[in-house]
Design a protein that fits this description.
The chain is an alpha/beta fold and about 325 residues long. The chain folds into two domains: about 5-145 and about 290-305, Rossmann fold; about 150-285, 3-Layer(aba) Sandwich (Rossmann fold). It has eleven helices and eight strands. The chain has helices at about 20-30, 35-50, 55-75, 95-100, 120-135, 150-170, 195-210, 235-245, 260-265, 265-280, 295-305; strands at about 5-10, 80-85, 105-110, 140, 175-185, 215-220, 250-255, 280-285. The strands form two sheets. It has a four-stranded parallel β-sheet with strand order 2-1-3-4, with helices on both faces. A four-stranded parallel β-sheet has the order 6-5-7-8, with helices on both faces. α5 (about 120-135) links the parallel β3 (about 105-110) and β4. α6 crosses α7 (about 195-210) and α8 packs parallel to α10. The protein is globular and about 65 Å long. The structure holds ligand FEC. The site of ligand FEC has 20 residues, from α1 and α9. Ligand FEC binds near residues 13, 26, 225 and 263.
Length: about 325
Amino acid sequence: MVQQKIGVLVMSYGTPQSLDDVEAYYTHIRRGHAPTAEQLKDLTDRYEAIVGGVFPLRKNTDAQVAGLQNRLNEIAPDRYVCYQGLKHAAPLIEDGVEQIAQDGIKHAIGIVLAPHYSVMSVGSYVKRAQEKAAELGIKMKFVQSYHLHPKLIEALTDRVNNVYEQLAPLQGDKPVKVLFSAHSLPEKIRELGDPYEHQLMQTSEAIAENTEIEDWQFTWQSAGRTHEPWLGPDILDTMEQVAQQGYKAILSAPIGFVSDHLEVLYDLDIEAKAKAKQLGVSFERIAMLNTDPLYMDTLAESVITVSAQLGKE
Ligand code: FEC
């Protein structure tokens, strides 16, 4: 009997198509409320600082989806077909599910290109995909998180070790502080018993244990520009404290992200780096995962594990 194909909806944040598209993108993030002229200028300026014709997140998401498809083809030939679904840009999550239906596929797995679960991040991707799948009669299961997958931890451990080995000898007896970071969220997630913070701490602890680095701290970054309180401390404040404590070097490990994109290329490489210069400390960041084979394996194995549940109900 021919096995039925399984759709894999690979979901990611999405980025504008071009600088002209920034306003529409920002309006989507703000749930239909257009940004003020000042907010729009602020975001456009940040994109202009990192974009050399191509928006990096678009290129990286395309490459990650292709990389996952290749890995799945190697492990289970002709079984899985990957589709892209973005949160804030085309093709939207709903477009991806629609495409699965148009191709006559009845069963699908959803996975987000973000390892940690929050009801405000992965949870919101899953909700949208689930609603569309129900409407179109597709049976879908989801990978909720993969923040402790051994291959993800191995890839991040290697990256932290590589930068630490370059940085530490240059510092002599001056200490190096490792700062793990992730996108902040509104503080109200704490009232919801959200697992996001705990999962990020678990990833940080696993890497610290593997690298045997004791001098580390977790901190937040890229908080939204809204009036409600966001989880802190922010990395820029943490850097000030670290410098006051006499550290001469910071190793930045943004473990909540998997690609080169605005929150890394601007918030860390431009903004945090400028802060480090002002504070007189060196600042080096680990390379992002992008299409690291260990990350592609993490995604493929997580998809296959969840797809075993498809026939069970
Ligand atoms: O490179 C790019 O073009 C996109 C980079 C990008 C990534 C990303 C990931 C996450 N976000 C998360 C939460 C929020 C919440 C709000 C929010 C707002 C923005 C804005 C931009 C933006 N985010 Fe984002 N995020 C990226 C970019 N994000 C631009 C709007 C301007 C600004 O505040 O800077 C607030 C929304 C609201 O006002 O309601 C909340 C989380 C992640 C990591 C998980 C994931 O990838 O989904 C959580 C990449």
